[in-house]
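[09:14] KT: can someone run the structure on this one? pasting the chain below
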Amino acid sequence: MAEIIVTNENYIDEVINSDIPVLLDFWATWCGPCRMIAPIVEEIAAENVGKIKVGKVNVDEQEELAVMFSISAIPTLVVIKDGEVVNKIVGIKPKEDILKLFE
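[09:31] RB: done, structure tokens below
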């Protein structure tokens, strides 16, 4: 699996200090749309190893991160480059739309 689990404890090392762009997937186990988009996010992670880091953030377990990113609906995908949020989308989107977030 090319995805990593992002927590409050590893957020700075894995996201802020990443030398490649990071796609954070904010999700929850009870969220149907999150389960629907998960295979797309996994595919992006597998196809872009070394180019894009993909992190999964469970909003129920990592409430502090969800609050920090003002997550009000899930799934929410956030792109971070050089420690800064550069893009964000909410809801189920096709793979092409997610990849456009990195342009």
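[09:33] KT: thanks! The chain has a mean pLDDT of 95.
[09:34] RB: yep, looked fine to me
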